[in-house]
Design goal:
Layout: E1 2-3, E2 10-13, E3 19-22, E4 36-37, E5 59-61, E6 74-78, E7 84-85, E8 94-98, H1 106-121, E9 126-129, H2 135-138, E10 141-143, H3 169-179, E11 183-188, H4 190-205, E12 211-216, H5 232-251, E13 256-262, H6 269-278, E14 283-285, H7 299-310, E15 312-318, H8 347-361, E16 368-372, H9 375-379, H10 385-403, E17 409-414, E18 417-422, H11 423-427, H12 438-447, H13 452-464, H14 473-480
Parallel strand pairs: 3-6, 8-9, 8-11, 11-12, 12-17, 13-15, 13-16, 14-15
Antiparallel strand pairs: 1-2, 2-3, 4-7, 5-6, 6-18, 9-10, 17-18
Helix pairs in contact: 1-10, 3-4, 5-6, 6-12
Main location: cytoplasm
Cofactor: Mg(2+)
Pathway: Carbohydrate degradation; glycolysis; D-glyceraldehyde 3-phosphate and glycerone phosphate from D-glucose: step 3/4
Length: 481
Amino acid sequence: MADSGESQMKIVNGEAGYVLEDVPHLTDHIPDLPTYPNPLQDNPAYSAVRQYFVNVDDTVAQKIVVHKDGPRGTHFRRAGPRQKVYFESDEVHACIVTCGGLCPGLNTVIREIVCGLYHMYGVTKVLGIDGGYRGFYSKNTISLTPKFVNDIHKRGGTILGTSRGGHDTSKIVDSIQDRGINQVYIIGGDGTQKGAAVIYEEIQRRELKVAVAGIPKTIDNDIPVIDKSFGFDTAVEEAQRAINAAHVEAESTENGIGVVKLMGRYSGFIAMYATLASRDVDCCLIPESPFYLEGQGGLFEFIEKRLKENGHMVIVIAEGAGQDLLSKSLESMDQQDASGNKLLQDVGLWMSQRIKDHFSKEQKMNITLKYIDPTYMIRAIPSNASDNVYCTLLAHSAVHGAMAGYTGFTVGPVNGRHAYIPFNRITEKQNKVVITDRMWARLLSSTDQPSFLSARVASKAKAQKEPSTLSDGNNLKETKQ
């Protein structure tokens, strides 16, 4: 098994281009660890299951659409219970920590890690770290039992508290050692998973028998590799209420406009899916698809056209959309929050004011505009039924992996099958809406909105009689394929 040069990356090359991007195992830095029979084989709840355990060599393909003569591509190790485990039940001292912003489903993941450890593996020592990463050395812990967490999935937020950034890795690992913790479950977004990778590396350097498992969390659905992040379905569903309210307000007055700002700092998935689900939206603006306001083919022209056609319209805008348009007036453009995220101006308020100013100064049309920002209402609600099931699978996959001795990994579904994924694959980039993909085309068809960038490219090309520098490279690439 060859090492890729990165401590958390193991590569196995097979025939026909097969590549397994494996995750670390405790035996990589602590050889000759004893193994134990998996307690699941004696668990009455699993007695009806034909095959208790996942085959040790099972993998999940990252891409399922391949050409017959093409390589088999990248695979990840399949998640699930193994026949042999590397911890005895009464030896395990686990801890759970939540970091970053709130997201529907956090409490469900906490609950199912605790209940999974108790009911599947007989583990009775589980600690909750209060207040994010800094809680390891600056806050109290909470003893977690199935009784304590029984109803927490019905509440929003996280019972453990959370924080952003600013932690001391050495102090965290010191705390893990001092408390005798040997399984660490870390729930958070890409910044949190980067922190988890650093914690894992320090644990490996000290040669501790401690498994580090990550559960990826972001309401924006911008984590790569995995099919989707937990809380996303709930966010899209809750966004419907805001869009419906905007639609009611808009159609109840002459030339009514409803503007709804949804989450999505760099990725417009919530805005796109909420728009597609609603069918009441006339225009969806996301960070990945540039737009402009004035002139031929601009947003103002489209608003006027749609108001003349329907008498009202609804605009959905992701929080990261249009930031380039207002960057000149934004003094905090280069400022960041504690997690290193760029501070964004409220594009919804700015856009609403620009629309009002335009129609009051330059048009004869009187408009009535209502602005709705449901951001924190969406983040704070409990997860829906679909996300509750999904959170259960994520939690159980993490527990199975840690008990089997895997470490330095994050869990998630890849093409519908849960897998163990190296930390660096989760943190290397952000998942974004591909505006040359069919899903964005479906949205444009649903809203009948123009592709604003294409309109500007066309007008500039016509004026200059040469290709525009605004042409999207992805479009060119797709044309050649």
